[in-house]
């Protein structure tokens, strides 16, 4: 598992926030994700469900697909996934299936989070892969982007 | 929610088994899936993780992607998903996110199943979508395909 300094964690989370910004520009729920191996970004993703008409196209799924392509392998051993918001059930399952070692997320998702809030998929001893989880990196910035989005959407409806 | 006769359920599960056969031909874990709306198959999928080098490419994900494309929408309301083996955590999350109404599976997966075995994702009252779940359709045929595959793999190793 990679051992990042606080500065490195904030650097990579800022990259995930740049991805979230891409969702925002398309009026999608703003969540961004990057995957890092050996200090290098090997996958990037942002929520694009509406744009692509794909139910599964969350930030994490897009990033995992790209990292699988970069590595020419479905196994993402020794990789760290940075995501602005706590992963949902589907994405936590995908992270586990991809054998990702470590997840660092910004802000919790009390309604749908499956990495501590509703479920603890990533640390479940019954599954055949365990993931190290850390949270709270650039938490305010990550949460604010979501809050601003939903506030704006309520105003428009 | 669609109301299938026993004969219709077995007909559609046989179609899912044909998909599983495609995985088997590629030496992948043999799981197949189809999605039905108004009596018509709008998505098909089979496990293709090794072939495509994509961690997420389970049968259900491939079928959901195809159904999303057929409908030009991420919402699969009033659709029934037939799958030979109980969905895992990722696929159960994806089924919920796609707003699928009903899941009918063949055989349970005691190790990874999230539609009753390890988790009950599809009927969780805390999530914002609930899915009707039925199991046991062509159960023996669905289970046997998996057992034969793993028996053969152990023999080859």
Automatic annotation (TrEMBL), chains A, B:
<protein>
    <recommendedName>
        <fullName>tRNA-specific adenosine deaminase</fullName>
        <ecNumber>3.5.4.33</ecNumber>
    </recommendedName>
</protein>
<feature type="binding site">
    <location>
        <position position="58"/>
    </location>
    <ligand>
        <name>Zn(2+)</name>
    </ligand>
</feature>
<dbReference type="InterPro" id="IPR058535">
    <property type="entry name" value="MafB19-deam"/>
</dbReference>
<dbReference type="InterPro" id="IPR002125">
    <property type="entry name" value="CMP_dCMP_dom"/>
</dbReference>
<dbReference type="GO" id="GO:0002100">
    <property type="term" value="P:tRNA wobble adenosine to inosine editing"/>
</dbReference>
<dbReference type="InterPro" id="IPR016193">
    <property type="entry name" value="Cytidine_deaminase-like"/>
</dbReference>
<dbReference type="Pfam" id="PF14437">
    <property type="entry name" value="MafB19-deam"/>
</dbReference>
<comment type="function">
    <text>Catalyzes the deamination of adenosine to inosine at the wobble position 34 of tRNA(Arg2).</text>
</comment>
<dbReference type="InterPro" id="IPR016192">
    <property type="entry name" value="APOBEC/CMP_deaminase_Zn-bd"/>
</dbReference>
<keyword id="KW-0862">Zinc</keyword>
<comment type="similarity">
    <text>Belongs to the cytidine and deoxycytidylate deaminase family. ADAT2 subfamily.</text>
</comment>
<dbReference type="GO" id="GO:0052717">
    <property type="term" value="F:tRNA-specific adenosine-34 deaminase activity"/>
</dbReference>
<keyword id="KW-0819">tRNA processing</keyword>
<keyword id="KW-0479">Metal-binding</keyword>
<feature type="active site" description="Proton donor">
    <location>
        <position position="60"/>
    </location>
</feature>
<feature type="binding site">
    <location>
        <position position="91"/>
    </location>
    <ligand>
        <name>Zn(2+)</name>
    </ligand>
</feature>
<dbReference type="GO" id="GO:0008270">
    <property type="term" value="F:zinc ion binding"/>
</dbReference>
<feature type="domain" description="CMP/dCMP-type deaminase">
    <location>
        <begin position="7"/>
        <end position="134"/>
    </location>
</feature>
<keyword id="KW-0378">Hydrolase</keyword>
<feature type="binding site">
    <location>
        <position position="88"/>
    </location>
    <ligand>
        <name>Zn(2+)</name>
    </ligand>
</feature>
<dbReference type="InterPro" id="IPR028883">
    <property type="entry name" value="tRNA_aden_deaminase"/>
</dbReference>
<comment type="subunit">
    <text>Homodimer.</text>
</comment>
């Amino acid at each position: 598992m990679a051992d990042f300094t606080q500065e490195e964690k904030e650097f990579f989370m800022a990259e995930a926030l740049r991805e979230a910004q891409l969702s925002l520009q398309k009026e999608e729920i703003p969540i961004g994700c990057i995957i890092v191996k050996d200090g290098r970004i090997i996958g990037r993703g942002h929520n694009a469900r509406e744009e692509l008409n794909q139910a599964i196209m969350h930030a994490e799924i897009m990033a995992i697909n790209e990292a699988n392509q970069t590595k020419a392998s479905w196994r993402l051993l020794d990789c760290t996934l940075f995501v602005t918001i706590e992963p949902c059930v589907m994405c936590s399952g995908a992270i586990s299936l991809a054998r990702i070692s470590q997840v660092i997320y910004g802000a919790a998702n009390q309604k749908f989070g499956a990495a501590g809030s509703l479920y603890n998929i990533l640390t479940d001893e019954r599954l055949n892969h365990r993931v190290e989880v850390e949270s709270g990196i650039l938490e305010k910035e990550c949460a604010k982007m979501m809050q601003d989005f939903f506030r704006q959407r309520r105003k428009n409806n």
